[in-house]
Amino acid sequence: MMAPLMLPSAQLRGDRIARLNLLAAAAMLAMASLLLILFQLFSLQASFQRTLRIQADMLAPAATQAMRQDNRLAAQQLLASLAAAPHIRQALLYSPYGTPFARYARSGSDTAPTAPRSGLQIDYLDGSAAILTALPGGGALYLRASLAPLYASLAQFAAFTLLVCLCAFGLTFLMVRRTRTAALHAERHLHYLAHVDPVTQLPNRHEFNDALAYALARADRQDSSVGLLLLDLDNFKIVNDTLGHHCGDQLLKLVSERLVAILRGTDIICRIGGDEFVVIVEPADDASEMASVARKILAVLAAPFALEGHQLYVSASIGVSLYPFDAQDVATLTRNADTAMYHAKHQGKNRYAVFKAEMELRAQRRLRMEANLRRALQNEELYLHYQPQIDLRSGRIVGVEALIRWHCRDMGQLSPAEFIPVAEESGIIVDLGRWVLQSACRQAAAWCKAGLLDSLEHVAVNLSACQARDPGLMDDIRAILDETQLPHGLLELEITEGVLMDNVHANVELMRRLQETGIHLSIDDFGTGYSSMSYLKRLPIDQLKIDRSFVHDLPGEGEAIVTAIIAMAHSLHLKVVAEGVETLQQVEFLRKAGCDNVQGFFFARPMTAAQLTALLLERRDWSTRTILPA
Length: 630
Known about the structure:
This protein is of the alpha/beta class. The strands form four sheets. Strands 13-14-16-17-18-19-20-21 form an eight-stranded mixed β-barrel, surrounded by five helices. It has a five-stranded antiparallel β-sheet with strand order 2-1-5-4-3. Strands 7-8-6-11-12 form a five-stranded mixed β-sheet, with helices on both faces. Helix 1 (about 10-70) packs antiparallel against helix 2 (about 70-80) and helix 1 (about 10-70) packs antiparallel against helix 3. It is rod-shaped.
């Protein structure tokens, strides 16, 4: 099973962004520190200059007086007082004639400047600053001070600034690291949500697509093959509907655990949605190996699942496709496995099917049929045929069954056995059934107005499972009967036994509402849907219709079943119709067994409304065909 991992590209991209953010923060802090140090240098320099000027200005009056009095001793003492200012390295008092008048030097190595310039001069290389101030009345005062105090203050400020910068960078590093850690956790969680199914903890569809693409690329490099099994749990919706979605999720988890337990560690198992799982097998030598894996899966799912006090039996339909024999890319390989899976489901479920090219042709034909069927309702390509039902006692036509036919402009004549399942799967059956009901009622109303339905008891229309579940069915029926003005008693709705048993309580309630409106009800294909006798006696029905599969075996193996059905129906005061009657021997047996009505090719094939109109006008008596010649 594939473990969900962080995508390397995303992680590297995140680390690179984090490093770039740290470098940017460091550069900004360094730039800010440098600007602060430069600003402090200019500030200290300006302060130092002010201090030096102030000292020169303070000494100037006394120095001027000493020179006027030509008192060298006083001038020397005045300059010697500068010893209290540790930053002053040298002081000179010049006479108006430019000769030194008095001198002070902190060190003997300090020599007198040869030609000092007036104003303030700073020599950063020498580490000193000098100022030459002209005195009132002539002469000048020269002061030279060391820049060491300025450098010391600047060094202290720079050290403090760098310390603050380092602390700020450390905090920034911690914040970026913490943010990156949180982002990494968020990325991993998002990756988990995006790539892992939360119910089964298996890789989901997104991870499946990546894993299958990687497996195909590796198969190309190694010149090997990859097998894909797509399995869909049969009738899983019933579990959700009866026990709830919580139990459905628990069942999916149990199924995934069994799959993980029996398959190899190198096999990749994914849940791609709903009740669908896929298994990637590599390397897969041939279709026989994949068939063996499919049989193993069916076997492990055959054992019951214990779930909240219930024992649930789960089966699966599995489709198998093989790379590179069945497809050359991920999408086609998955589609082919899905096609094979639906083929297995249509074959009766709880089995597997290996993809074959003709399956794809059938799938494409089905898609074309669905698209054309939607247009057929608008393009008037659909029409009805009617098959008479004969009373075995009187030999008269007592009913007709409306049967839909379709001549597709694109695909030609199509059998109802082919397009009705497509209509049911695609949901078109509701609109299709409404059209059949409306068309049949309009035609029956026209026959009724023409006085051709005197001997007819009903016009039968089939009701599909989707129509039975449609909440608007009753409103549609009432609207159609009101529109056509057809007497309610002339309409008979046929519900197959399988549809009836799909949701017994809801369908019984529907049938009661239909019967209250005066509509006749019949159970079609009786004997094939495993209906319970306890339900049957409570159903508000008027008639049973024996399935053609039992009539086909008459006389012979089907005699016991048909006789039992007729006897049971009559005991419940129900009429019996046998469909699929094709021989006189079948007619004779049914007549002797007490069957009420028959329908089949022996009497008449389904015909157009115009042909049936002519037959009704003929008022034919069929009694001569219901008795064997002596």
